[in-house]
Amino acid sequence: xxxxxxxxxxxxxxxxxxxxxxxxxxxxxxxxxxxxxxxxxxxxxxxxxxxxxxxxxxxxxxxxxxxxxxxxxxxxxxxxxxxxxxxxxxxxxxxxxxxxxxxxxxxxxxxxxxxxxxxxxxxxxxxxxxxxxxxxxxxxxxxxxxxxxxxxxxxxxxxxxxxxxxxxxxxxxxxxxxxxxxxxxxxxxxxxxxxxxxxxxxxxxxxxxxxxxxxxxxxxx
Length: 221
Prior knowledge:
Elements: H1 6-9, H2 18-21, H3 34-42, E1 50-54, E2 57-60, E3 64-65, E4 70-71, E5 75-77, E6 82-83, E7 88-89, E8 93-95, E9 100-103, E10 106-112, E11 117-120, E12 123-129, E13 134-135, E14 140-141, E15 152-155, E16 158-161, E17 169-171, E18 176-177, E19 182-183, E20 187-189, E21 194-195, E22 200-201, E23 204-205, E24 209-213, E25 216-219
Parallel strand pairs: 2-5, 3-6, 4-7, 5-8, 6-9, 7-10, 8-10, 9-11, 10-12, 12-17, 13-18, 14-19, 17-20, 18-21, 19-22, 20-23, 21-24
Antiparallel strand pairs: 1-2, 15-16, 24-25
């Protein structure tokens, strides 16, 4: 599945996690490594630019973090990021440069590339969101199957067994997710694609597509 490879989903120059993602082929392979990577990277960050506000929590001096936000370790909040009122960051999270984590949004075991926006009532767990990806209000990643089985990425007759139980969504660069959408476990959305509001997405959505429903995915003109 070439379309699911990191090289075809992301511009790695737009994330502080570049070195981690360069060690794997598919983005979900990085999920079990996020926590250790954050701790290693955090200890090497420029102390002129970042404060370690608690053990293994690094926040850039230029970031804006609401006093009502909750942040658990390990976590890195990059320069010029914004973490808004009542955001809930449960740890193992990288919030990229200029990214927005909004009101009542919950993060867990994620990499948000630079300028990602998850601004309104989003849940993002065990996921990687590419440069300028945006999730509309109330859209979420569902990261565990109802039968609790290991997640398989499916694209028509092709499939990849990931060997992991918790896997939300891999969103390529500049993906737009419509309001109220559910990204089911193992979803991969190619870069520059748009998902209609109130969609239920599973499997692979090609890059430069408009997803209207599972039977109507059209190429962008």
